[in-house]
Amino acid sequence: SSTVLFGDQTYKAEPGGGKILQVAYTVDDGPSTASSNTNAYVTTGVSVDITPSATSSKIFLTWNHIFYNTGSNNDEIRMTFYRDSTQLGDCIMSQAQSVWIPSAMTYVDEPSSTSAITYAAYFMSNQSNLVYGANASYNAVITAWEIDGS
Q1: pTM value?
Q2: Where are the alpha helices (DSSP H) in the chain?
Q3: 60 and 145 in contact (C-beta within 8 Å)?
């Protein structure tokens, strides 16, 4: 078989938004824990700083993490992002006991700012089980991608 190309096949970037302007990330291997069933988020200790170049920019956040539940029954884990002190969208996962569970979360933020911003990853347990997040063998990574929003 053969491939036939017609016309100019050179890729040309279209004007306007969607381009990646900068990427900032943090890799962390420090353990974090949550043992509260009061629906209170606790920090994972994983955060990243970014300064958007325009108020129209969007920030695409990714968080890759791993959890371990020490309890005797299943535990609902909630994960969320914070922009400085503002909580952003969250997600829920369930996990079985005594097993490491890889997890990931993404979120698109529109901060409308050109000031330095700290994005942080938080989680909580819905039972009184002790839940670990990250350790020296399994790193946690938070990444902030600034996307041109023009």
Answers
A1: 0.80
A2: none
A3: yes
